[in-house]
Structures are given as C-alpha cells and as structure tokens.
Protein 1
Amino acid sequence: MTEAIHVFGNPSSMHAFGREARALVENARANVAGLINALPEEVIFVGSGSEGNNTVLSILSCPSEHCTCDRRRGPNGIVTTRIEHPCILETSKCLKGRGIPVVLVGVDGLGKVQMDELDNALNDGVGILSVMMANNEIGTIQDIKAIAARAHAKGILVHTDAVQATGKIPVDVRDLDVDFLTVSAHKIYGPKGIGALYVRRGTTFCPLVRGGHQERGRRAGTENTLGIVGFGKAAELRTRDLAEEMPRLRALREALRQGIEERIPDVHFNGHPIDCVPNTLNVSFDGAEGESILLYLDLEGIAVSTGSACASGSLDPSHVLLATGLPVERAHGSIRMSLGRDNSEADVDYVLDTLPGIIRRIRDMSTAYRRRTP
Amino acid sequence: MSTHQNWAYTDKVKDHFMHPRNVLLDEDYAEDGKGLVGNIQCGDEMMVAIQVDRKTGTITDCKWKTFGCASAIASTSVLSEMVKGMSLEEAFHVSPKAIAAELGQLPEHKIHCSVLGDKALRAAINDYYRRSGRPEKVVEEEARVICKCMNVTDHEIEEAVLDGARTFYELQERTKMSTVCGMCADEAATLLRHYVQKHFGQTPHPA
C-alpha cells in the first residue's frame, strides 16, 4: 500500500501513469475476487459496504426507460430480515415508501432466519431476497446456501451482506450460489471507506452512482486507488491466514465465554452457540446496564460495544437482540466483545480479571439486581 | 488503549461515575423516606432514600441505587450530595436543570436521566410525609389530560420535549396530540414553551 501512495496516475487514463495505477487496481480486484472465489470481472469496488447494499436493493426498483436493467417490468418486491444492518433496513424502508413491496422475516431465539416465515414471504411479487451471512451484533451465521436455493427455485435473485463474515469464515460465492454479495475492507483489516460488491456474471444490474465508465459502467466515480490497493492486500492476507486464524479466534472466544460463565453469576450469552463467527461474543448481565459496563471497561483500556439504548442516542435498544425475543432489560444489559488478530490469551485473561469486578460494582449500585447467594 | 480524551461527558460526570457518592450498600439502612421511579424496560430505574431531621425538616442523609447509564449514575450521585442539609421544601424543587448544571453539562439526550433523579427524590420526600403522619404535605404528581381526542397528558408532553421535540409540529409528530379537533393547541403550545424553558433554558422555535 505504501508503494501505491506514490502512484499518481488515474487508473482510467491511458498514459503510462494511468496504466501503472490500473495495474495495481486490477491486481487488487483479483485478490478480492480470490477471497470470495469470484471472477475478477464480477467484483465492483464501491465506497463502503453500505453503498454496496444500497446498490443491490435499488437495482430492481429502477423504473426508468433509460436504464438497461432488463427485469424492471418483472417483480420488484424485497424480502429481507429483521436483523439486517441499518443500511439494508433503512433502504428497504425508503423503497417501501416509493411503493416497492417489502417484507421483513423474523428470526428465532438464536438469531436464525425462520424458514417457514421465509417460504411464505417468497411469493410472486418478490424480485430479490437479501439475508446477511453473519450478524454484526450476535455473530449468528445463516445457512445462505439453503436460503438461496429456496429463493432461486422461485426465480428470485439472492443477495447476502457478507461484511461481517468475510475474512472470519470461508465465503465462497460459487458454493453459496448467490447473485450478489457485499464485503467491506475495514472488516478484514483493510482501509476504511472502501467496499466491494460481487455481481454474478450475467446478472441484471443498475448502478447507484451513474455517469462514468469506471468499474465497467457499474459504479461511476474516480477509483479510490489507495483504498482499493489496501483492500487487495488485506484480501490477500486473509486468504492466506484464514485457516489458521479461525480456530485460534474460536479458542479465544470459547475461553472468554467459559471464563465469564465461571466467574460471573446471572449471565446470558446471546446468539447461536455453534453457528457463529469465531470473533464475536455477545453477553447480557442481569441488573447491569450496558453503557455503564462499556464505559467502566473503557477506563480499563478494554473496548466493547453495547445493545443498550443509552449508548446509541436513541431510546431503543438493539433491534437485533429484540428480534431474537430477548427481554428489553436484557438488551439494555448486553455488551458485544470482538476479538481480532492482535488479541492473545493474555488479553482474554486481562478481561476475565477486570470484568467481574466491574459487573459486581455496577450490580452493587443497581436497583435491578439482588444477589442470589449472600 | 483509550486515552480518555474524548469522553462524551464532562470531568465532573466522569468523577462521579468513577467514584459514585452515597450509594446504598447497607441492606439495613434506616431510611425515613424512599422513592423508586422509572423501570428497567426503559433502561433507567432510580431509587432514592433519605434520612430527615424531624425537628428542622432538613435532609440529613441521602443514599441511592440506580440501574442506568453513566449520566444516570453521575446525576444521582451529585444529587445525593446536593440535597444533604437542604430543607424538604427546597429539596422538593431541585430541578433537572440544576442537577445538570451541578455536573457541568450533560449531552441533551441524557437529560432524562437526571430528571429521574429529581423525581425519585420527590417520591422519597412524599414517602417521608406519608410515613411521618403528614399526608396533607404530599404533593402528588398526577398527570393531566391535555388533548382529549388523543388522550395525551402533560407528562407525555414533557417526555416528548425531553426526547427532543422543540416545535409544535415535532410535538404533534411524537404524541399525535392536537391532530383531531385542535381545541388543545393553545394550551399545548404553552406547555411546550414551559417544558423547553424548564429543561433546556431556551424558547422553542416558532411553529
């Protein structure tokens, strides 16, 4: 990436400087494609995972005669789930306001999509199904392959938001058999502000950003060369490390989970115990509020996030936790811990040494906690 | 490692959060009055307990517990320091604005946390009056219906203001009040001005 800082050319220019930049971009594209087993030409660089997801949902809603999206007179309904990232949920809400039919499918207590509800939702008016591969808050992994098969049997296009899954578990677009898939660089230790959208060769498409031939006319705007090169490098490294890193993180997560269970009473783990990304642990503590836990941990140098309303600025706790049927007070008392390549057993030990005291302190102050044994 | 430089809260909030004063830890605390407000479903619950000198009518001690965020902890902690030595009448009129001012400043969406503190204190004072055989001193905070069509009370208008409503339109959006016959519009506008002034010390934008 440091060599790319010195590359001045515009990758869309034909002169030597431009060609040099073009070569770097195409090399990065091959690396990102390699990470998800796609063809390089099936990878479109976009500004973020959110842009990728906005683009996909908007494809079938385009009513314009000027566009070449061949399915615009076909069904354009959207089916997605209650636990998606806001960039899917907000876009769905916006499109619903423009008259596009939208159905949100629920999940069970562990965060898995309700298959019978999904089957009912996939009717004749539906053009696209979007289900996230792994959830960002609770880590639950969906069976995208089985879900895609159900949708394809009814001629419905399939998108998966794999931003949280990519680089943490194997993601193979051929095996999953999806038409669209979103990834983001910063979730795989790449730079922030660059994402990629996989579009299966030959699939109908309509750009969100128009007016340029970049990305084969599918995403206008001068390429973010530096971001793309960093993304490519990150993809190359994740492709190389994944097999080793996955079991290592899983073991750390399990040590953390077990340690918390042993040292702190009245805890509840959220999400699927087995089908989950190896780096995410979401846990609720009875009688302790999430923002307080977050801030006390922050003062000890431990960074977590919370599903509590207090930290979000809104008055509502996590929509994901509520969708799993978690009681509101448990959502308020939840934190999410994320592990990564820089974390070691020593970090887990440090958390396990620090967290019980913080929870005890908060519970001592709490109106909502009574110790079971004196 | 965090450098703690960009805390969303002031140093005083941080101090009270890290070292909360007067937390009720003793299960056998002999309080003269106790008030509990909020609920954990909403994310905040507060309990305030007071000891009162009957002769002088002043608060001699104040303890508390809370289920809540950093500003809930800090605002109840600072409140417990503020009211020691106060007369019951004075303590009854401690406003959320005064608590927030004592802390330096609170983010706007966190003001409702300190509102719970003063409500819990008033509930504790009322409880003291009841226990000490002076029910006539109890000032009930009963909600009054302002919009009869949509059944919206003054408390709900106050909540809407604390939740961010500043204009009449925003108030309508949040509470659906004054959207049917419109008879309550004048009173609602007056209450909107009153609560914005009370909690944020500013006059609302014209509708």
Protein 2
Amino acid sequence: MRALGVVPPVLFLVAWQLCSWSPAFPIQTFSNPAEVVNALLQSIWDGTLLRATAQTFQTTFCGLGLAIVLGVPFGFLVGSLPRANRAAVGVVEILRPVPAVAVIPLALLMFGFGSSMESAVVAFAAFWPVMVIARAAARAVDERLIEVARALEFNTLERFVKFLFPAALRQLFVGFRLGLGVALVVAVTVEVAVNPQGLGYSMTSAQAALRPDQVIALLVWIGLVGWTVNAVVALAEMRLFRWDPLSGAHR
Amino acid sequence: MRYAALRFIETTFLPAIVLTLWQFAWSKGWLPRLFLPAPSEIWISLTRMVQSGELLLAASVTGWRLLVGWLAASLLGIALGIAVGSSRIGHRLLSPTLEFIRPLPASALIPLLILAMGLTDQMIVAVIALGSLWPVLLGTVAGVRAVEPRLLEVAAGLEMSRSRVTTRIALPAALPDILAGLRLGLTLALVLCVVAEMITMSGGLGGQILLASRNFRAADLFAGIFAIGATGLVLDLCIGAVERWCFRWRRV
C-alpha cells in the first residue's frame, strides 16, 4: 500500500515529459524531466553542485553554531532565573517579530557580501527556536536535580554545566533540530536574495542564464539535501537519546 | 495595580538602558556610524517617513500583495486539505509527496517563478501563495484526520450527506489546527513578500530597506526594519483576535 504514494509524482513526471513534446508547451520556461535529470547529472559531474552545496552547508552550520553558543546560555539564564526573564522579555519581544530576512540589508551593510554576512542572518533566525527551547528546558528541569546541586553547594556556572546541560540535552536537541531546519532555509533564502554564493545563487544565476533545466534541477537537489539532513538528524536523535537518564528507562 | 506597574518597570528597564547607552556611545563616536545610527536619528527618520506618507505607501503595497497571496493560499490549502484529509485513498496517494515538498525553502521557488512570470506583481503574489500554502494545507489535513471517529459514526447514522459532514463536523473540529496553519502561513507570507520585494526591487517595505542599505542610509534602514517588525506584530495580533473570536465559547 505504501507504493501508492509513488503514483502522483510518477504520473506528474510522465505527463510533464509527454506535454513537453507538444509544440505548444513553453519549454523555455518549464523544461522537461529528461533535461532536468541531464542538468543535475552534469552539475554533479563537473563539481559545481557539490561546491555550492558545501558553501551553503558551511554558512548554515556557522550560523547555527553561533545561534547555539548564544542561544543556549541565554535561554538557560532566563529560564532558570525569573528575574532575568522579566528583565530580558522587553528586548526579546521587540526583536523577535522581526523576520530574519528583514535583517539581510543590515547584515549586508555591516559585513558586505560573503559568508560572514550570511552566517549572521542565519544566526539571527536560528537563535529564536534554540533560545526558546533552552528556556523551556531550563524551566522543566527536575526539582530534585536542583536540590542536589544546591546541597552540593555548586555555583551558578557549575550548575549550568554539570546539571542543567546534561538534564536538558534531550530537549535541547529538539531545539537544534528546529534551528537546523530554519538555518538551511534562511541560508538558501539569503543566497537567492542577495549573496552571490552557494545553492541559492546557483539558482539565481541559472535563472539569469535562462536555464530552466538547471533551476529545476537545483530545486530538486535542495529538496533532496533538506530531506537527507532531516532524516540524518532524526536518526541521530533516536540513537543518542534511547536512554532516559532521569527515569533510567529506555524510551 | 502596583504589581502591574512594577512589572512594567522591570520589562522596560533593560530596553531603556540599552537605548541610553547606545545613544551615549554614538555621541562619543565609539560606534561605527556607517551601519549603526543613533536611536535619535532612527526616530527622526521614522517620523519623517510616517509624515511624508512614504512608510504608509510602502506598507500598503506590501500588505496588499501579502494579503492576496495569503488568502489564495488559505482557500486553496483548506480545500485541498479537506480533500486529502477526509479520504483515505487521497491521503495515501498524496502524503508522501507533501512530506517531501514541505521542507523545501519557498524562496527557492522564486527563480523558477521569475522565469515563468517575470519580475511582476503577480510573481510576488504567486511566491507568497505557493509558500504559505503548506502550513494551511498540512494543518487542515491533520485537523480533519483527527476528527473524533464517534462523531463521524453519528453522522453516518443520521445519514448526513458528505458536504454536510464536512461543513458541520469536519471543519469545526479541525478549526484549531486550521487557524494554527493560517497563523504560520501569515508569518511566512510576510517573510516571502519581503524577500520577493528585495529581489524585484518593486517598492514595498522589502524594496525600501534594501534600497536604504545600498545607499548607506542606515537610519532609514533601521526605521524600515522596525516597520516590518511592527507589520508582523500587527498581523499576528489580528489573527490572534480572530482566533479568540472563534473560540469565545471556550472561555465561558
């Protein structure tokens, strides 16, 4: 029964290919499946696709790393100290509704074109999911653990590193996963919009060169890459957190 | 009352400190003036843009595109979502395809749509419509599929027609999920509208901030970013009000 899901895409591809043979079909805009596959193989073969993918990944992970380094401690701080939360909530509520793409021109003015500008926008976008989950994780930490930490007379930093972080790791990972999804989308968006590098720019330049086959091949590739990254992260999550340290049971 | 006042002071304390320090550091010349204007400059720029009507014009252009695209996406998403969600075959057929398309960045559609439609207003609306379709569609599918089976049994017992089941049972039951999808779609619509405007440079808030950045008008840039954030906030408040109106019976 699972095979049913394959039917619509296959039908679509066949119809597309058949239509493209008709003289009335706007092949200059929509190409056809055979040409798209050809363009995909060609760009894999000559290395341009993999180079662009590596560039996009590099900025995605730089930005996500920055978001984690800033977002986790900030989330822990406001999550475990109610007073810090009340002080920070004003700034957070001003900045959070700003869509990350609106920051693109500012990042452009600060860093010029290139990886640092893109990483900055990605970090701004991924900061919010990471921070929100870290805050929730810090609030949800088991009372017993906090009491143990207090009994052992740990200071705030030790409490963060030795108790909060391990206890919240499973939940934090959810934040990382959400952040990664956001980061990848924003990286491609920045490249499509302004930044001349990576997969997004490959698309814009293929569009400017009037090569719909390449544009669609890149679209398919971005879909495949995004899907693979999601699958790998989901698998890692399952492998890493099979054991629940608090209850001592397997989930 | 006193508690509320204390709360207010606590939350506005840090922003006030940040702004004061920012203004002070700027006046001492410690900040890079190329991209970091003083808060006072941003304020002047913002009031000028409001008074000249420039901001309102840009916001209305953006708002119009966004609403048309989002409404199209919402209608299509709800209709498709009911079709996919209420039939088992439809769900089996389409859900793998939907799952594959869902994580695709909607902005990656822009180059393809530019090829198909050129740098036009219709292209921007199409980007918004295609991009904000997914949350609404998937929300509706999830909501319709989660309808309490006993309700459907009752409907079958009453020999209700399919269209009646949809409007009287499936839609109301799926409403919370649909509204959540609509809300997410609206956020996405603003993002896509800003991106598309930056690429086509055809007015609107997105075009305005990129232009400000290219001309090194940092104060105008900050004012524009502020306006976009405010637009997002207003849209969110509006849909929040709709949500509360829909569920007003819940709070009794």
Protein 3
Amino acid sequence: MSECMTESRLEKLFAAGEFVVTSEIGPLKSASAHNIIKHTEETKQYCHGFNLTDNQSAIVRLSSIAAAVHVLQHGGNPIMQMTCRDRNRLAMQSDLLGAYSLGVRNVLCLSGDHQSFGNHPTAKNVYDIDSIQLIAMVKKMRDEKKMLSGEEMKIEPRFYIGAVANPFGDPIELRVMRLAKKVRAGAQFIQTQAIFDVEKFSHWMELVCAAGIDGQVNIMAGVLPIKSVRALTYMKENVAGMSIPDVLIERMRNAENQQAEGIAITVEIIQQLRQIKGIKGVHIMPVAWESVLPEIVSKAGLLPREKAAE
Amino acid sequence: MIIAEQKPLAEIAESVQDVAKVLVVGCGGCVTVCLSGGENEAEVLASALRIKRGIDGIAGEVGQVTVERQCDPEYVAKLDTAVDGIDAVVSLACGVGVQFLAERYSKTVVVPAQNTKFAGGTVEHGVWEERCGLCGECVLAATGGICPIIRCSKSLLNGPCGGSAQGYCEVGKDIPCAWVMIYERLKKLGREASLCEIAAVKDWSKSRDGGPRKIVREDLRL
C-alpha cells in the first residue's frame, strides 16, 4: 500500500502512516454553496478531507460534484460521494469523468438511502448497478482505462476509491463478507457507520482483522458528534442499523451542559477507536453542527494536521 | 400469477360515465385465482356500477360476462357477440387482457377495472406477495431461490445495504431483507461461501429496458 496509485492526498497520507481525519459537509437544498465555502474555509485546517454527500437521505440537494468543486476552489480536499440510487451506469461514468476533469480525486461509493425516505418518494429508483459493482467500475476505468462496457478511453479518471461499511448490521458474518467483497472489488479506504457502541465495533474489527481485511484497506471509524440527548434518542429510534448504548443516553440526559458532554463523549470515543487494531483514521460527521469540528479534533489530540493535507 | 387489485368504484364509474351500454368482462385466469376479477367479481362490479349509475342519473345498461382468459385471442374472440353494440367494455383482467380486448375491438372503448400489481403468489388466504421481477434472466440459482431483483428494494446483487436491520428492509418493517434471507438459506445449504463472489452487473436489456419484449418459438408456429 506504500506505492500510490493516484494523486489523491488521502492516499498519500495513509501511505505515510498518518492517522487520517475526514469530515463531512451536506450541500443545501438550494442553488447556493455558501455553507460549503464557509465550512471549507473555517475547518479545512482541522481535517484531511471533506465528504460531499450525494442527495443525502434521498433529498434533492446541490450535487456532490458541484459541492466537491466548491471545496477544491476554497482549498479543501473533496471526497465526492456517489450513490447508485439516482443514476444509471451511463450517467455515473459520465459524472466520474467530469468530476475527475474538474480536479476531484476521491470518490466514495454507496448504495444510497431508498427514495421513500426523501422529498420525492414517488420517484423511480435506478440501481442499475450496486455499490460493489460501482467500486469495480471505478477501478476498471482507472486501472484498465476501460468503460464498464469494455470500450477504451484515452484519459482515465484516477480516483482513490472509498466505500462504506455498517459494523452494526446483522448477521455480522455477512457484513464482514460484504466488506471483503468491497475491498476485492477495489475499495482502498472504508468509512464506517457512526460508532457509539465501541465494544460492539471492536468485536466487528476483530472479525475484520481475523479475515486479514485490515491489511488490505484503510479503515476509518465513523464518529458523529452528539448535540443533545434528543438527537441521540432520535437516532436510536429512527436510524436503521445504529447501535447506541443506553448508558450514553443516560449520561447525556444527566449532563448539565449537553453540548459540552456530547463533545466530551465524542472525544472519548475517538480516543478509544484509535486504540483499536486496524483503525487508520476517523471520519467525523458533524451533521448540522459543522462548527464543532475544530474543538473535537483539537481535544482528541489530532492536531497538528500533517503537511500533506495542505 | 399476475396479482391485480380492483380500482375504486368511483374511478371505474367515471371512466364510463359518458357512455350508455357497458359490458363488464371478467377473466378466468390469474385474477380469478387472486379473487379480484373472475366471474364473481364481474357480477359484483356490474351490480355496483348499475346502482352507482342509477344514483348518478346515467341512462343505459351494464351487462357482464366472463371468458376463460383475456390474454388469449382464441377466448377473446368468443366475446364478439356480447361486445356487439356495446359502447364501453370494462375489463377485469390484468393490463394484458385489457390490451387484448382493445386490440380486437378497435371501435369500442375498453377501460381497466384493475390496477395490475405484480407477479406473485398467495402466502395466506387474502394475502399476496410479489416474487418475480420479470427481469428476463433468472438469477435464482445463485441466490438460494430468493429473488434479489424484486425482493430487495434496491435490486442489489451483492448483499445487503447498510439499511438492513434485524433482518428487515429500511423501506418497511414488514419487508424482510432479501439478502439476509438469501444468506440464511445458503448457509443452511452449506453454500454461503458463494456470496464472496462479486456478482457481475446485470444485463437489463433482457428486462423491459431493452424495449417491449417478444418471444417467437419457431417450433410452435403454425
């Protein structure tokens, strides 16, 4: 893994053994990138890259490609998310070529939330290809200079390829199997679902390491800063595939200052995750609370960021 | 079989409100088995339409007849006498039957009384579930006899998405996750290792994406 296949800064950082920190920006339901520009400028020194979500929760938002370009233009390092829900193989390949031509170097491949969750529940879903096939397609374009159909191209998009994993999905063996498949398809880094249950996550990582997967891919543990006990309870009750221990909810409920307690919990979780074998970085998802990133990164002892991120 | 569900009476009545002579045509095929469009349902619908049109002050007649299958020209032809002089036919068949009637009776209005829902079967009395996505290239041999094309809400071919939890789909707690079912079934057969293989992208041209489909069997043609 020491030899880099792409120009991606993320790939270089992992290769250099850096503990990589990424964050996330959700584009607006609006023809404006002001939040993207603001968060990029204010927090780019505190992370190595920003995920730009792709119509997150199946809600129409400014596109992840445009968002990625805004991040680039303001000195940040974009990780463009691409879901399989809204585009067929033609549109996806076309967008990959376009995004690369605009300077985007990282892509994160996902299935995408079902459209029934979003603001256009009567839409037709696409799922022409699935997330594993998408990973393989991006790799094929990069390594073989070929489109999915086999047709050759002159200039290939050289993306650093990411994927996601849900360590709390069940059955757990099937989840590990699917992760292995993503890596075999070409995933080079993994960002996990938000982790609140470190013990359960450790068990999953043991299985991942036992299967030898940790040596083949850079696994980043997902962390979601908690703002209030209400937000935490909401996630426990409404977000599929999340494991939130009751003890955390109690701790938040009893806190005098819930925001401060939420930050303390997040920092503790990051420190625990860092100790787990096979964890190469953290992906911090400050959903609707982007301004908290500097404090969390600082308190978790993840500063200063490596020069390669510049 | 094809599972269909009757449209609301008001919608059916509205679609024939401007004509006098109406014929309700039941079908003896799938819709009889799924209790939505056979002889009994044709009689009930015709009576309901007569009452409704009476209340609405629409003059005319509503008759009814049921044929063995509306998706077969041989049986459709038997309707020629009954359809003669009729202004509108209300078909209780699936969308296929409606079209076969429309093709044969080019001068008669033909409207559907059903919403054609899916290819499925009866799981218990009064409950039908979808089972086949009619994708044109069956993958069931690789998936333990459980179809991911239609039973996974995202038609994934390489295992469950992150939204599957406790064996259920993110779309609804009453939808079992097809990929968990596939895994459990293959595990029982000792074949779960096959799931490590990356399933190739699907050739959707075999499905409706390739345009309207047709099968010609030269060995059977007259």
